[in-house]
Amino acid sequence: MALESFKARISLLLEEMVNQPKDGHEVQEQLREKLREMRAMGLPLPADLVALEKRLDDDFYAQGS
Predict the structure, then answer these.
(1) pTM > 0.70
(2) What local confidence, expressed as pLDDT, does residue 62 receive?
(3) What are the residue ranges spanned by the domains of the chain?
(4) Average pLDDT of the chain?
(5) What are phi and psi of 29, to 5 degrees?
(6) Which residue has the higher pLDDT, 40 or 2?
(7) Which residues of 15-48 are buried (b: 16+ CB within 10 A; e: fewer)?
């Protein structure tokens, strides 16, 4: 059940990113935190979310932050 709970929370975070782009950085950090929690629990990470995390990191570093 933990995996389904994480998926639901991540889905809500992604929806927030789309609906409230001005708060995008905060939502990105929350997404990263959820993925770290999943890793720590040994849960499988969906490949599309791993790819999204990488893209967010790449964008963050490309902006010079």
Answers:
(1) no
(2) 81
(3) 2-62
(4) 79
(5) -65, -40
(6) 40
(7) ebbeeeeeeeeebbebbeebbeebeeeeeeeeee
CA distances from 63 to 2, 7, 56, 57, 59 (A): 34, 29, 11, 10, 6
Distance of CA 50 to the CA centre of its chain: 8
Q: Which helix (H) or strand (E) holds 49?
A: helix 47-62
Give me the amino acid identity at 48: D
Helix and strand totals (H; E) in the chain: 3, 0
- Model pLDDT for residues 23-63, shown as the tens digit of each residue: 667 777 888 888 888 889 998 888 888 888 888 778 777 87
Cα 2 from Cα 17, distance rounded (Å): 23
Residue identified by tokens 């959820």 is 34
